[in-house]
């Protein structure tokens, strides 16, 4: 795959005067919770601050309920038909997709978009879409390929994922682009000095699941050599397994040091980052974790795994300590190293913050997406003229 196909092109970045462009973004759960929602919320904020002429409306298409989820999908399709086909008040639809049930729902949504003949941007957020696709029934695979191939632009979070998925689905390179996630940049300096009680603040942010490595993290925190240090951890996230992990923390004898604060965002989440020194994400699979980027922006010392696009974000020994998924001794060693060495925490925190500011800001992310929107809407206008 060519570099031109992987990165937002200069032709996409043209800023000709188009007037207001109305974008409908389909986001599971809206912009209040989850990494996809937070990124799109940041993009909307940047678009508003830049007075870009882009108007973005969010359409929530998902609920964690066997009954409500199909209803929300039907509602999404109805809104698309009403605004796109009857009212003609939408210029482009941006659909965010991942694996499993999300793909099935988005196949229906994307088919509806094609009926309206409105330009479609399809953005993939999955942590291992190759395995998800190859595990599908044979009759379903052509339908998935068609969904991606018929999109006007397919956006990936990382170069490696773009190459593997594009090859697998036989995508047109000229219609693929890499746009990494981004988070807002602040002027705050990295702070690694612990409070008066000399207690290290640790934070995990994301869905509480085996895939995210939550059991591994709890097991490491319960080891005698780790328990001998002064620390406290906040689990900022939720999921179906939350009660199970609370019980595990209780069984391991560390429940009093673990705060399960649920899904939070905005000022609450920023306050937790501000009171922490170490961020841990021992995940077995990621696309590009928004929580990782947020922790880097706050100057936290990061422990993570090289999964998904993370290898394109951090390097071991520079912006983070990288461990293998499931490597409990390695994770324990990383925790102890950062707990015991303020200078090391500061070094990693400052390097991570610099790396994030240079390459993964929400302003850059929004700029790339807005350029894609403008380019596709301009092409669509040109086709209507001719």
Plain-language structure description:
Helix 7 links the parallel strand 5 and strand 6 (176-178). The protein has helices at 3-6, 35-49, 68-86, 101-116, 129-134, 141-149, 159-169, 214-221, 224-227, 242-252, 266-274, 290-297, 328-340, 342-359, 362-385; strands spanning 21-27, 54-60, 92-97, 120-124, 153-156, 176-178, 200-205, 231-236, 258-260, 278-281, 301-304, 320-322. It has 386 residues and is of the alpha/beta class. Helices cover 45% and strands 15% of the residues. It is globular and about 65 Å long. The longest helix has 24 residues, at 362-385. The chain folds into 2 domains: 3-182 and 361-385, Glycogen Phosphorylase B (Rossmann fold), CATH 3.40.50.2000; 200-359, Rossmann fold (3-Layer(aba) Sandwich). The chain has 15 helices and 12 strands.
Number of helices: 15
Low-confidence stretches: 1-18, 381-386
Mean pLDDT: 85
Secondary-structure arrangement, i.e. CATH architecture of the largest domain: 3-Layer(aba) Sandwich
CATH superfamily of the largest domain: Glycogen Phosphorylase B
Tell me the fraction of residues in β-strands, as a range. Answer: 15-25%
Q: What is the molecular shape? A: globular
What oligomeric state best describes the polypeptide chains here? single chain
The CATH topology assignment of the largest domain is Rossmann fold
């Amino acid at each position: 795959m060519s570099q031109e196909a992987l990165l937002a092109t200069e032709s996409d970045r043209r800023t000709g005067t188009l007037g207001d462009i109305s974008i409908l973004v389909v986001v599971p759960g809206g912009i209040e919770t989850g990494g996809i929602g937070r990124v799109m919320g940041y993009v909307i904020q940047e678009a508003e601050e830049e007075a870009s002429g882009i108007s973005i409306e969010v359409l929530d298409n998902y609920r964690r309920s066997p009954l409500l989820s199909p209803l929300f999908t039907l509602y999404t399709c109805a809104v698309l038909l009403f605004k796109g086909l009857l009212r003609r008040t939408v210029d482009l639809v941006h659909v965010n997709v991942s694996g499993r049930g999300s793909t099935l729902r988005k196949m229906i949504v994307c088919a509806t978009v094609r009926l309206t003949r409105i330009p479609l941007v399809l953005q993939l957020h999955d942590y291992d879409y190759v395995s998800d696709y190859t595990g599908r029934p044979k009759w379903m695979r052509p339908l998935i390929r068609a969904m991606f191939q018929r999109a006007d632009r397919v956006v990936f979070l990382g170069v490696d994922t773009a190459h593997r998925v594009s090859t697998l689905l036989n995508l047109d390179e000229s219609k693929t682009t890499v746009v990494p996630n981004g988070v807002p940049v602040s002027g705050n300096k990295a702070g690694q000095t612990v409070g008066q009680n000399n207690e290290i603040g640790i934070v995990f942010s994301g869905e509480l699941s085996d895939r995210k490595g939550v059991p591994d993290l709890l097991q490491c925190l319960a080891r005698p050599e780790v328990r001998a240090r002064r620390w406290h951890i906040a689990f900022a996230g939720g999921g179906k397994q939350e009660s199970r992990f609370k019980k595990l923390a209780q069984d391991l004898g560390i429940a009093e040091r673990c705060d399960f604060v649920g899904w939070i965002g905005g000022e609450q989440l920023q306050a937790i980052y501000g009171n922490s020194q170490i961020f841990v994400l021992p995940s077995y699979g990621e696309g590009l974790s928004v929580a990782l980027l947020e922790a880097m922006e706050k100057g936290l010392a990061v422990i993570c795994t090289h999964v998904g696009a993370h290898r394109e974000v951090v390097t071991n020994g520079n912006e983070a300590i990288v461990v293998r998924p499931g490597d409990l001794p390695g994770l324990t060693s990383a925790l102890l190293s950062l707990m015991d060495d303020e200078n090391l925490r500061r070094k990693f925190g400052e390097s991570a913050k610099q790396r994030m500011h240079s390459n993964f800001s929400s302003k850059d992310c929004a700029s790339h997406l807005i350029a894609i929107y403008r380019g596709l809407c301009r092409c669509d206008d040109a086709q209507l003229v001719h």
